[in-house]
Every structure is written in C-alpha cells, then in structure tokens.
Request: fold
Amino acid sequence: MTPSRDIAALLDIMARLRTPVTGCPWDLEQTFATIAPYTVEEAYEVAETIARGDLDDLREELGDLLLQVVFHARMAEEQDAFDFGDVVEAITRKMIRRHPHVFGDESGELTPSDVKGNWDRIKAEEKAERAARRPPEESTHKSLLAGVKAGQPALARALALQNKASTVGFDWNDPRAVLSKIREEADEIEAALDADDKNELEAETGDLLFAVVNLARHVGADPDSALRASNVKFERRFAYIERTLESRGRTLEEASLDEMDMLWNEAKRTEGPSSRPSDAGAHLAPSS
Reply:
C-alpha cells in the first residue's frame, strides 16, 4: 500500500487496522474512552506547532489529528452509529447554516462582530434543537453549572465551574482560606497513603488539584499558564542537571538522587529572581 492524498486511503488503512484477526492488536483493543486522551494530546500538539511557527511540523500534526477523527468514526461505524461520511456531512451542514451571509440570502455589509453574533445565535438554536430531540429528563432541575462545557481540559473546566459557582456567592472570601483547604486535602492524601487505598488516593489527589486551581483563581493567576511556566522551569533546571553531569563525564543513570538534587538547587541559585525570559510566551512563576 502506498501513501495517498485521497482520504479514502486513510479510511481504508483504519478499516484494515481494525479488522479482527488480520488487523493490529493494539488498534483492535481501543475504545472511544481509550482513544480520547490521544485526541486531546494531538490537538495540543497542533497548537504547539502553531506557537513555534513550524509549518512542516504543523502538516504532520494535522495529519495525526485527522487520524483521531478517522479512528473515532471507524469505531462508530462498527457499532452502526455513524461513519466518516456522516461526520463530514454534519460539519458541512453546520458551516453552511452558520454562514448565511456567505451561503444564504442575507445581504449587506457585516462586521466580524456581526458574524460572531450570528454564529452564537445559530449555535444556540442548534443546541436547543439537539436538546429537544433527547428523551425528557426525569427532573426538570436546571443546574447553574449546566452551561459549563464538559469537553474542556480538566484544569480549564475546574476554573470555569468555580467561576460559575462564585456568581451566587459560593466561594471563599480569602486566598488564605483556600490555602487552608489545600493543607486539609494534603492531610487526606497522607491518610489515604497510610491506608494504602489507591482509589481514595486518586480521589483525594483530584480534590487537591481542584483546590490548587481555586487558589490560582483567588490570587489572579491563570492555572494553565502557571503550570505551563512551571513545566518550562522544570525542563530548564533538569537540562542544567544533564549538562553539568555530561561535563563531568557522567550520565543521569550514574548519578545519585542526592547528586541530582544538589544540582537542581544549584540551578535555582544560578537563575536568580530576574532570570525570567522576556519572551511573552514563556512567563515563569516565582522560583520555588
């Protein structure tokens, strides 16, 4: 089989990978749930290549993201739910409907703001139509949190849920109160460690992360940006450890944890309080 520019070739590849007995064992055991994290990861990698301005990598990453769509569509087809063609038809219908100024009878000059307003209005209509097609819920209760999108990354959704709840006064009044909650959650993790309860450890770790997001919100920090900055800081300091060991003719595997920890602290000292990059895309949190 040779590479092709035809989407049919990609659909055929996925069908063969998912064919029982002759297909790929790994691909065959996947489900929507197991593939979903890869879908999110590929979307982030697309965003990362755009941030770097690397169009060659962008081509590759867009292909990886497209594969995710094809994978999900193939699994749905196997369940007689829908296929890739249905996905394409759904999005083309949506785009035509949401751009009446291009594909419909609307006329006149529209500003980008006008277009955005139309988009939001039509999107709300579509959402109402989908809701009307669903079986009626047993309860008529409409939660304040219902409008928070479920498909967001967990960190962003935690922030959105907290912001929504705060609109009715369900909130801490002082960042120190949130800090106290963080200590409480840490104590509960310690108790779960003592009990060697893996399920409880996962639950309490989630509670701790939720509380940390709340602290970020109260001190005016975007949790995602703060975490990205800490990732950059970790990479930079770890690279210092690698470079220093290499200059001494040693490898990471040969170094002890105490030696690596000493080099980590050395990296912190060499950075200093004013060592933050001026690049707007790489803000660093205060050194910790």
In short: Residues 223-247 form the longest helix (25 residues). The CA atoms of residues 149 and 216 lie 20 Å apart. Confidence is low (pLDDT under 50) at residues 274-288. The radius of gyration is 25 Å.
